[in-house]
Amino acid sequence: MDPLMPPPIKRIVVDREPRVVDPPPGAPGNGAASPGALAHSPTLRRRHSSAVAAVERMEMRELSIAYGEKVAVNAVSLPVRQGEVLALIGPSGCGKTTLLRSLNRLTELTATARRWGQITLDGEDVDRVEVTHLRRRVSMVFQQPNPFPMSVFDNVAYALREQGARKPKRAALAPAVQDALERAGLFAEVADDLDRQALRLSGGQQQRLCIARSLAANPDVLLLDEPCSALDPISTEVIEQLIVRLREQVAIVIVTHNLQQAYRVADHVAFMYLGDLVEYGPVDQVFHRPVAKRTKDYVGGAFG
Amino acid sequence: MAREPLVAATASGGSPPPKPERTKPRESPSTWPLVDRIGLYLCWAAGIAMCLVTGGILAYMAVRGVQFLRPSLFFNSPTPELDQSKSGGFLDPLIGTVLITIVGTLIAFPIGVATAVWLNEYRRPSGLARAVESGVEVVAGTPSVVLAIFGLIIFQQSFFGFLSLTAEGNAVLGRSFFTAGAMMGLIALPLIVGSTRVGLQQIPNHVREASYAVGKTKAATIRRVLLPSCRPAIATGTVLGMGRIIGDTAIVVILLGATLQLQSVGEVPGLSTLKGSGSTLTSYVYNNSPAGEGQSPGKAYAAAFVLLLVVVALNYAVNRITSREAPQWIR
Which fold would CATH assign to domain B69-330? Predict the structure, then answer.
């Protein structure tokens, strides 16, 4: 696929009710889409009902996180299901990134951070899982594309090469690397030269490489922290399609500032405000029939 | 609709087109206050003077150096002869410079990189980290002659006898490539630490976290991601440190003996040379110039020219390394 050409827009959702494909009311920069323009509407949802039933993989119970005296996440309980995309939305500083980072215990890197409550992965408390093992199962992709300064192949193989163990041969790793690159939708673009420097790729390719790197260890849960905020619209679209495709293989949690993006990719949305979980529910409910007034104001663009 | 070209309008005899608005011409310094003008001219003068001085040194050393430079100088050991036509060349000092640079770099490189990594990535306990930081700063600011005297005291202890010549009666000489190299390592160390730390600081934190997030430990992250990322920075610091070692004289005179020829100690080839004393190009220049002890300015000029060429080459190497692309991430 030519990375410079926009991929064909796939109409995945065929919904009779125009209300469903409407943009979120008053969503910024989107304008009002008339029913006739729906086919080309940028808010066309990519998700479709998942082929597999959603399975609960992670659960947060009364999760609170504080940095020093400042409470960043306040008693949040949320499920994370495989077969679904969970989007965390909310204004800056509302604790959604902190929540995401706590899922694979990256918050522990911050000296002042403290955590209460319980997070389970397949019923097991994450505190009882050895941390490097946990992070192989709950992998994370960051806001900025950050491939390591090595070849494309080595980037993807990075997670596969166990520490201390004898170096596996390249040929032994090649199938897994190719599989991860294919799942991240990057293989066709880099297949001719897997030895090129990863940092020479375009921004969108770098971010998909980071996703491939995270997928290489076959994680159960994939955490995405605003994965498209540093990317152009075309790369964003490619990655959004990728997220929707991947959700059947791994449970996906995505933090996004972009309401339309949440609307496009998510099945469930959690709206957070100042550390509190204000509303959690299916995407249609949160965007069209929000229960809480704050949610209504936020998705309606009253504040942000 | 295309606009009519201006040329056509003037050619057809119409009124000339209005003068296009131009941005203001650059403000001339002649309109500046006197103080600012004087300041500007002083800046100019300083820059040009700098170029003139450098150019002057290079040109003068080139003229005088080439005048006395003979290929035979590179292949003959210096000998104690009053007749300058028989006093040999600077083969031994040249070898000495190479040896002392290698020994010093081999000592400074691992310690410097390790110190920088610890200071930037671990820093626990923080009091110790601050102590290490000021320690490095103190070493960087200490004149090398002080380090040399200190080294001489240390390495003359009988405990360090294995590093140099032990005279009869168990008096340890304390002068060898090992002991001088150790102190040379100390003067190169701060440059390597500083440069490596700058390299590490330029790696954004999310790159480290990305490595942790696929289940890698801190040690693996440092080895596989961080150190390869700041390779240009480490190389720059190392080359700068080598330049310091090559240019140092005090440590050579005090700790290497500044003997005319390499003097081996012991029987093991290689090791015997390193345990022995010798000289470098810097001490050779000093010992041959009339300003020092010698009476052979010609040979001093020739050696000084070679020294200058080596340093210029190192500077060029630093420029090449720093211009090489270090990995760039969005912060």
Answer: MetI-like fold (1.10.3720)
